């Protein structure tokens, strides 16, 4: 078990280093930050001085090395655009993204599993079929379109919910939360639905098909033949055995909820790290882009690791295999 | 699905309408800093004009009017300018304004670390005469100096020293990048970079407040569709800009008005005046046809500007004949006609120049810098095709665009220019003068246009005190640039703002949004 974990951690580190290398080799194609940083009246000498100061003319391997050197000491550099330490900016913005991701994740998981079970048990019912049909919308419509659609219905036409932003936030320690104010909670609704819709339909469809699979198994038939109550058969015996693939997918989706928050955050002007990243690309704010990409890859790698370890916990067969 | 949507929105009460005097506005760009000397860019200077003031300021029609100086007059034969300062002005923290703050702000804004230092290139010395009189001496007579410092904002010396911000910082953070202490009608209450900036009126302001705002909140919204939705739903009271394609629809929506005007920015085509060969397309390596003035003239006549304005700009822009728009000082009234759209004449000119069969070249264009820039370039490509020359369009984000132009990687390019001084001398200095790094001339003259007479006229224009004589020289320069077809000015870019219909405001051609002219009913 320990050897397995160590091996996985080392693999993860390698993945991180490669991601960073790829990222830094791409930055030069994103563009040149200099013209955004200097005014109209700059001279060629100003441009060269600043390029030199920022190390933009160094080979990307050198830039990457400098970044890594700072990063291991917890120093991610200074944002070109905001002039503040990148770590500070990301710490400022992270609560917004994490809260949004958490709410959408819970929505997706709750409704996804619930509706998945429902449509599996009542698989020929009218409402189950209706839900399945509608879920195609969630899978096929792009996020930004759903977001804009929701804004037009609930903000512009009905005027119920705010069209952008996070509402009023409360500061608790270093964490700004929008859970404690009415406007903050209202502001969460549309972005959370937009962000979680795809994941919800995905989980729902997955739970449904797994569940249908399991319900056909012999042990379920025997359980029914034994006269166990329907509830107990469905939830204790069937559901439990559908959860392994659901955990894998949920784990990976949790990562993409945070990573794909970029689009939702842009549509709703949600002040999280995704929006920060988009703005950083427009401004060629290399320190912010680098830190964000590293952060996201750390997260993905970490989630994968946790999912792998959870298998161990849930599926006893893996544990036996592991001892060989 | 529908069930879920309803379930989650059911319990939500109706959003309460905003208080009338609270004003919220949104724009695509967040000002990078609150330091008026650290970054010389329009979003920063435009925003800070509400918080800081200069010796002079611009009125609703862009004319220069007294602000922290009550009057000014030239000294002797143009050795400098004397500014008489306003008495009884206090900064937001209560400190009194006097000549020491002006001297300090001069040193701060003209120093090595400042991005605004080029404004003070003509200045040799700033002298305190008494507590409320300052002489700004220039190395040569400088008639437009008061015009050129409308964005030079005065900072309190005591405040800057107490907070350790006697020097601006462009690429970093200090107290002055997040806090502000000006003399203008609004105070900075809070600042969260990239998220929200809140201003409140300053009760001790020296002027008569014309606004009725009690609190103003600025939010940057990058996505145009989000901004439009926020305006329609009443979450914000004003957005800048409105996407051109949404303007017509928005103006018909209930509760929303569209305010249109023309900006100071002239959009033009530029040529390689120095390159010996073409760099792109089938004729790569062949002699550069744009060295021939007839070819440049043919391009000018082949571009159907009215059609571009009608279709791509939806009738919102105005034709341009020279490097500045009519709203600028020094505009040449007599040269206000741009070359007529005439396919036959263009073809004849090309034939005369030996290009009857046309040629192929590369057109570089930004796709996120100016309003509908890429669409304009595409239109230019098809219009040039009608006279037999084939442009291969390469459109790219502006962050890749300027480096390409600096590397001379173009056969023709698109450029927009907004003169920072609102004077016709500005584009001559940056776009028409022979590039000269030392003298800080021609720094945006990517094509390397060079004309001895223009170079000779420029310093004369800069130091001519007499308005009539100065205008004559500006006219002469404009005439040369038109005759030589140094550039093909096409149109003046429109300004399109969206406001709630209970808001009245003033749209200044420099695209600065001035809060003290806003009233909310």
From TrEMBL, chain A:
One of its GO terms (cellular component) is plasma membrane. It is found in: Cell membrane. The chain crosses the membrane at residues 12-30, 100-121, 133-154, 188-207, 243-270, 290-314. Gene3D superfamilies: MetI-like. Pfam families: BPD_transp_1 (PF00528), BPD_transp_1_N (PF19300). Residues 94-311 form the ABC transmembrane type-1 domain. Keywords: Cell membrane, Membrane, Transmembrane, Transmembrane helix, Transport. The keyword Aminoacyl-tRNA synthetase does not apply. It is a multi-pass membrane protein. GO terms for biological process: transmembrane transport. It comes from the Bacteria. The keyword Isomerase does not apply. Belongs to the binding-protein-dependent transport system permease family. This is Glutathione transport system permease protein GsiC. The gene is gsiC_2.
From TrEMBL, chain B:
Residues 64-429 form the Solute-binding protein family domain. GO terms for molecular function: peptide transmembrane transporter activity. One of its GO terms (biological process) is peptide transport. InterPro entries: Peptide/Ni-bd, SBP_5, SBP_5_dom. It is found in: Periplasm. Residues 1-20 form the signal peptide. The keyword Transport applies. It holds the Pfam family SBP_bac_5. GO terms for cellular component: ATP-binding cassette (ABC) transporter complex; outer membrane-bounded periplasmic space. Keywords: Signal, Transport. The keyword Signal applies. Belongs to the bacterial solute-binding protein 5 family. This is Glutathione-binding protein GsiB.
